[in-house]
Amino acid sequence: MHEGVARVNILHDDEMIGTAEVLGNLSDRIKGDVIVTSCDTITDVPAQQFLDLYRLNRPSVAAVFSEIMSSEGGGGSSKDEGKLLEQFFYSHHPRAQHVETKYVVGIDQRSSRLVMLKPTDDDDKSIDVRSSICKRYPSLAISNNFLDAHIYVFSRWVIDFIKANSGITSLQEQLIPLLVRAQSHPQLYSKYRIDEFINPKSEPVVEESMQYSQNVGVTSEQEAPAPKTYGPLSVFAYVRRNCIGGRANNNPRYCDLNKVIARISQAPSVDASASVGAKTVVRYKQMVTTASSSSSLLFNNELEVTTDSQVGRGTKIGQKSKIEKSVVGFHCTIGNNVKITNSVVMDYASIEDGVTLDSSIVCQNVHIGSNSTISKSEIGARKEVPADTIAKGEQLILSGPSEGTSGIAIAFG
Amino acid sequence: MAPKQKTGGNTEKAKEVIQAVVIVESFDEYFQPLSYNIPRCLLPICNVPMLEYTLEFMATSGVQEVYLFCKSHMEKIKEYLKGYIKRKGKVPLISVCNANSSLSVGDVLRDVYRMAQISGHFILCSANVVSNINLMRVYEEHIKRQARDPAQIITLVLMEVSQGHRIESRTENAYYFLHPQTNQILHHHTELKGSKSEDNFPAPLEMFATVKEVEVRSDLLDTCIAICSKDVPQFFEDNFDYQCIRNDFVKGVLHSDIYVETMYAHILQDTSFKEGCYAAGVTGTAAYDIISRDIISRWVYPVCVDSNILPDTDYKQDPESVYKDSGVVLARQCWIEKNIVLGKNTHIEKGSRIRHSVLGDNCVVKSDSIVQGSYLFSNTSVGKGCSVLRSILGFGVQLLDNVKIGRGCMIGDNVILGPNATIPPFTRIAAVKKPEEFEDLDLGTASPSLSQDDNDAKSLTNVPTSVVGVQGRGFLWGSTTNYKDVDGDREDDYDSEESDNMEYFEAQNYCLNYMAVTMKDVDLKEADILDYPPSDDDLESEYSEDASDDVDSGIPINDLAISDAAKQNEDEYMMEAVETLDRAHNNKHEVSTALLELKSLRMAHNASPELQRLALMRWFATKIDWNNLNKSIKALVDKWNPLFEPVTDGDEAQIHMMWVVEQCCANIAADRSDTKSVRMAFQLIVRYLFDAEIISEDAILEWFDEAKDKPDSSGIDVTLINSLQGLIDYLQSSDEESEEDTDSEDEDSE
């Protein structure tokens, strides 16, 4: 557990602006190298290791990539991964078109250098690989399964660079690809005059190939590959394989992350103050326990840790209900004969008798009338869902955006 | 070890016999003329025959049965094996198989299939592998993996090469897309170094379907060793066009939608010092040079010069990697610099300097000579004041005094050179005349070319005293860098630039496999290629040799010389094309039928558009009725003009077509007495081709300008060209005048 950060400044921006612009605006507050992250990132990357990579190599940029966890489905009105809600949300901010691009990422195994970042479509059958990059980095790991975790460390000059190039609005979509490309494109490097931004004191990176060419010997007539140094620009990547975490930037991922955290959480899977009615089943990973009385619930100690579901403090669950692979928040009221599978129920929600909830997200203070069947849907905060509703793949939200979230919106991605 | 699965022998015999197929024949001629008298596998590397390394490698790896596939000099190999077995006593079972009908590794594997001697997984390697790895471990891994993945078909042994190491492939960039944990090969891409395509290449995203992450390796070298499952020969039998392992078989199976077989790579890492990690095949003289140096500098330890693989040697290592056998005599004043092997009883006399070289037994280097980066086989003598740079001298070569040998030369056995001779770089000289049969196989030796200014190359081949010296004895075998021949073809083919570039780079890279050839030697600047006609002296010597042929075949003089093999192919095509067209004409076939037949013929012979034009025109000329010129030509063009269309696409093609027409008519004019009617015919052909929109106005005008600038000596018929003046005037003056006008004008000018 950490002791707390020295000082937290909360800055507010009314306008909908890009991530890079934010950094540009803050440039006079940033004194040295800076860590940038987004608040939807949950990761188990040991910060120490990542920062050590940065401290050791002092690259211009270091970024974290994590292997994408396989999704268990759930949390989606979502053939299109819950874009509807986002579209609704972003429709008030036309600049932020949320289309997440998939990238093929190439990382040099020996130096951890990020050397390739190629956007791909699902329709693409193949990607173009640059031979020169392959030759320069003879052992290259490429994958289309690495997720940019949105954790960056930037050298100070990068902030100046952003400020000077007002065309760059997004970190992930513009700045990072540009810098990655500029590493191996001398033209690009000089076009953006990156040299001038980089502190002239910093040591140029000595290329491996240079050292080898000296070893080859006098009689060798083979032209050793000309050492190519494009200056000290370097983008490093820390790759977290088999990680737990990711970015909760869409509903299915939000749902997955909920479940993952419930699974690894140290807290008891059903809070002691929660009450569970008779014959209710809270299904844990493989084991099933049946509460025998309607009073304060009974559960075996052995079941506490390795569970799939979590029930929060003060939540009351009626009789003959069943909760599987789900996370239920604080102070919820769940009636009798309710089935909740693969879902997230937020605090103060009340779900009446006979409701079936599957692969859905239920926000705070939602009330769901009895005998409703809801699957693959999202229900916005404070929504009243009438009894006997049957919803599949829908988004039920209160009309009017002002009722939704408050606070600033930063388009990540 | 996995038990045999199909042959249900008793359990004691269930252990598999480890078999190896060793391909002795190399299917190329990099080592000619050195390998003229003895097979390549018996040429010495660091004074030990190459085959010895391979057999030793097999024996130490625990291989029990070895099948040697030989083609040339089989008797000598058998004889050598007899000695080997006698010497060693306990050796693997070695059988020599005849691969006389084989032309490639693929053919050998088809032979293996038919032989049906291979019962399980087997080791495949070529007979020129120098290695210190324990193949048994690779083999066992392969067997273990087989249990996990029954679809496994081959394990390629690849060596990790640090960037810039001399063993790195000089000719191709190979990219392996591997599974990071299992080393399964998911995709393989190769490109020729220096080719235009060397920029981007596509990699299928499909490979991410099975793995999350792919490792792309560009630092792996094919060692010519592979562990094959027993289905591999079957694959080659089924796919008769597979020629080699990596480019045909591996790529074929990987890119195929039908085959589900998997392939793996075994990577020899240079960090695993505990066990051997060196394996490389002598694929050309360049590799020969590099591997020799690697052995000398102990990369292949414990395979070293002083491990004395041959029984009757006693090499000892001195500082700076100088190895000396017994009986070496060095003058008090001579320089023996580093990385040198000196064979038994070698004498180095006063004032001589030896660097980075290997000298065989009984070699003599007389005073004040320099031998640098060279390989002298046994019984070679170097006279006074000679210099030998980066060359290979065969057995018993005698250099008399003051002979200078430029880099990259190959001097065959028993050649005598000198005194006072200078051998230009990349020359090959043999004691015998180059036999004809080599011509079809070897790209590089197509025509002898020498960078001598005033000599006729042809006469040199017979009496090369000016090169080999007054007392010299030897015949020219051709240079190692006549890529220019192939390059010549490139110029002709403006229609299919892509494939031509490839051809050009293949030729260039073929040369790069020769020792001491650097990129600079083979890299023709674009400007040189387009220098038209070429004015280079050494280029011209090539032309003068082939010039007489050119006139025969009617190829315009500015087309470059073509190798004999290609020429034979072209002659065949020409004949068959003319016959096909004749048939079509006589039997009144449809044009489309004739077009189809021509197309298949073109495919079969890989005929260039030039050749097609030539064939077409030749046939055309035979069909002209000389008594009724106008009518017959018009009828011919009307009926057969679709034949011209595919070969006259673009201005350049049309200009060439004009040259072909001109040349054809000039040939006829030489035969016929009435040049007048020939001129007439020429005009008519051009006119009707123009009318049929086969040749554009621009092309005619441009050709005319070009033709006028040609000197008279270049063999074109000036009168023919001038006879077109009328048409040209007409074209220049008006665009849309009536055709009758031209007609009458033509008649007038005649």
From TrEMBL, chain A:
<keyword id="KW-0396">Initiation factor</keyword>
<dbReference type="Pfam" id="PF25084">
    <property type="entry name" value="LbH_EIF2B"/>
</dbReference>
<dbReference type="GO" id="GO:0005851">
    <property type="term" value="C:eukaryotic translation initiation factor 2B complex"/>
</dbReference>
<dbReference type="InterPro" id="IPR051960">
    <property type="entry name" value="eIF2B_gamma"/>
</dbReference>
<dbReference type="InterPro" id="IPR056764">
    <property type="entry name" value="LbH_EIF2B3/5"/>
</dbReference>
<comment type="similarity">
    <text>Belongs to the eIF-2B gamma/epsilon subunits family.</text>
</comment>
<dbReference type="GO" id="GO:0005829">
    <property type="term" value="C:cytosol"/>
</dbReference>
<dbReference type="GO" id="GO:0003743">
    <property type="term" value="F:translation initiation factor activity"/>
</dbReference>
<dbReference type="InterPro" id="IPR011004">
    <property type="entry name" value="Trimer_LpxA-like_sf"/>
</dbReference>
<dbReference type="GO" id="GO:0005085">
    <property type="term" value="F:guanyl-nucleotide exchange factor activity"/>
</dbReference>
<dbReference type="GO" id="GO:0002183">
    <property type="term" value="P:cytoplasmic translational initiation"/>
</dbReference>
<feature type="domain" description="EIF2B subunit epsilon/gamma LbH">
    <location>
        <begin position="300"/>
        <end position="378"/>
    </location>
</feature>
<protein>
    <recommendedName>
        <fullName>Translation initiation factor eIF2B subunit gamma</fullName>
    </recommendedName>
</protein>
<dbReference type="InterPro" id="IPR029044">
    <property type="entry name" value="Nucleotide-diphossugar_trans"/>
</dbReference>
<keyword id="KW-0648">Protein biosynthesis</keyword>
<keyword id="KW-0963">Cytoplasm</keyword>
<comment type="subunit">
    <text>Component of the translation initiation factor 2B (eIF2B) complex which is a heterodecamer of two sets of five different subunits: alpha, beta, gamma, delta and epsilon. Subunits alpha, beta and delta comprise a regulatory subcomplex and subunits epsilon and gamma comprise a catalytic subcomplex. Within the complex, the hexameric regulatory complex resides at the center, with the two heterodimeric catalytic subcomplexes bound on opposite sides.</text>
</comment>
From TrEMBL, chain B:
<dbReference type="InterPro" id="IPR016024">
    <property type="entry name" value="ARM-type_fold"/>
</dbReference>
<dbReference type="InterPro" id="IPR029044">
    <property type="entry name" value="Nucleotide-diphossugar_trans"/>
</dbReference>
<dbReference type="GO" id="GO:0005851">
    <property type="term" value="C:eukaryotic translation initiation factor 2B complex"/>
</dbReference>
<dbReference type="GO" id="GO:0003743">
    <property type="term" value="F:translation initiation factor activity"/>
</dbReference>
<keyword id="KW-0396">Initiation factor</keyword>
<protein>
    <recommendedName>
        <fullName>Translation initiation factor eIF2B subunit epsilon</fullName>
    </recommendedName>
</protein>
<dbReference type="GO" id="GO:0031369">
    <property type="term" value="F:translation initiation factor binding"/>
</dbReference>
<feature type="domain" description="W2">
    <location>
        <begin position="567"/>
        <end position="741"/>
    </location>
</feature>
<comment type="similarity">
    <text>Belongs to the eIF-2B gamma/epsilon subunits family.</text>
</comment>
<dbReference type="InterPro" id="IPR044123">
    <property type="entry name" value="W2_eIF2B_epsilon"/>
</dbReference>
<dbReference type="Pfam" id="PF02020">
    <property type="entry name" value="W2"/>
</dbReference>
<dbReference type="Pfam" id="PF25084">
    <property type="entry name" value="LbH_EIF2B"/>
</dbReference>
<dbReference type="GO" id="GO:0005085">
    <property type="term" value="F:guanyl-nucleotide exchange factor activity"/>
</dbReference>
<comment type="subunit">
    <text>Component of the translation initiation factor 2B (eIF2B) complex which is a heterodecamer of two sets of five different subunits: alpha, beta, gamma, delta and epsilon. Subunits alpha, beta and delta comprise a regulatory subcomplex and subunits epsilon and gamma comprise a catalytic subcomplex. Within the complex, the hexameric regulatory complex resides at the center, with the two heterodimeric catalytic subcomplexes bound on opposite sides.</text>
</comment>
<dbReference type="InterPro" id="IPR035543">
    <property type="entry name" value="eIF-2B_epsilon_N"/>
</dbReference>
<dbReference type="InterPro" id="IPR011004">
    <property type="entry name" value="Trimer_LpxA-like_sf"/>
</dbReference>
<dbReference type="InterPro" id="IPR056764">
    <property type="entry name" value="LbH_EIF2B3/5"/>
</dbReference>
<keyword id="KW-0648">Protein biosynthesis</keyword>
<keyword id="KW-0963">Cytoplasm</keyword>
<dbReference type="GO" id="GO:0005829">
    <property type="term" value="C:cytosol"/>
</dbReference>
<dbReference type="InterPro" id="IPR051956">
    <property type="entry name" value="eIF2B_epsilon"/>
</dbReference>
<dbReference type="InterPro" id="IPR003307">
    <property type="entry name" value="W2_domain"/>
</dbReference>
